[in-house]
Amino acid sequence: MGEFIIGVVSSLVATALVVVGGTALSPRARSWPTRLLSGFTGLGISCVHPRQRVAIGDLMGELAKARWVKVLAGRGNELTRDGFVALWEDGGRRLEFVHILLPDTDPPSASWLERREDEIRRIDPGFSRGMLAEQVDINAGYIKEVAADRDNIELRRYNLPNLHRMVITDRVAFLTLYRRAAHGRDSPCIVAPSPGVMYDYAVQLFTTAWDHA
Fold first, then answer.
1. Nearest Cα to 53, choosing from 169, 165, 181?
2. Could you give the domains of the chain?
3. What gap in Å lies between CA 192 and CA 173, rounded to an integer?
4. How many whole angstroms separate alpha carbon 105 and alpha carbon 132?
């Protein structure tokens, strides 16, 4: 568990330069310096969206072409929306597998989910105590309902640092780094194609969380 947390922190430090360089410029000018910085550092990043919600078009396109999909979400609201519809409709039956990780809302000890909820409550006065866990359970129920008629969908629950969202396919990884003073949708989203150092790290990070879920 300690190695997992250290790995998360290390990834944040390693990508800070690229995130800053990618978000400080206009959308039109953002692509080439991000690629330049990525090539210089060897991280393998093609784009940094200033906010996760800006990446939805690219994400939908990649999900429509994917052979398999892995998702680690801090809440999972977008799993029930248009951005992920390609996974749940009949077209999603072609996928080899869809692995979903959502937070554990009933852990045996202090919850990382509660820590994230405290952060959100500081910036969103309408976010009441227990609302984050309630939303996670609603989204988990949605996934379970879809999976009841599909043999290629599996859901697991985790109790680990709620610091990011990952959507990984066989082609690309979308890694959102949660800001403490912002919802996930307003946090920067790194796009890392395969093959690449950041893509490989995202897969490793997901696999570690999956194996301990």
1. 165
2. 2-211 (3.30.870.10)
3. 5
4. 9
Contact in structure between 172 and 137 (CB atoms under 8 Å): no
Do 80 and 142 contact (CB within 8 A), yes or no?
A: yes
Residue with tokens 């989203």: 189
Beta strands, E only, 84-178: 98-103, 153-158, 164-169, 172-177
Residue 183 near residue 11 (C-beta atoms within 8 A): no
Cα distance from N-terminal residue to C-terminal residue, the chain: 11
State the Cα–Cα distance between residues 99 and 83, nearest whole angstrom: 16
Token digits of residue 33: 């310096």
Cα separations (Å) of 156 from 29, 70, 87, 175, 187? 39, 11, 17, 19, 24
Residue 58, pLDDT score: 92
DSSP for residue 162: -
Q: Give pLDDT < 50 ranges for the chain.
A: 4-6, 8-10, 12-30, 36, 40
Q: What pTM, to 2 d.p., does this model score? A: 0.80
How many angstroms separate the CA atoms of 99 and 137, rounded?
17
User: What does the pLDDT read at residue 44?
Assistant: 80
Q: How far apart are CA 119 and CA 147, in angstroms?
A: 32
Residue 100, both tokens: 């979903």
8 Å CB contact between 212 and 4:
yes
pLDDT recorded at residue 39: 52
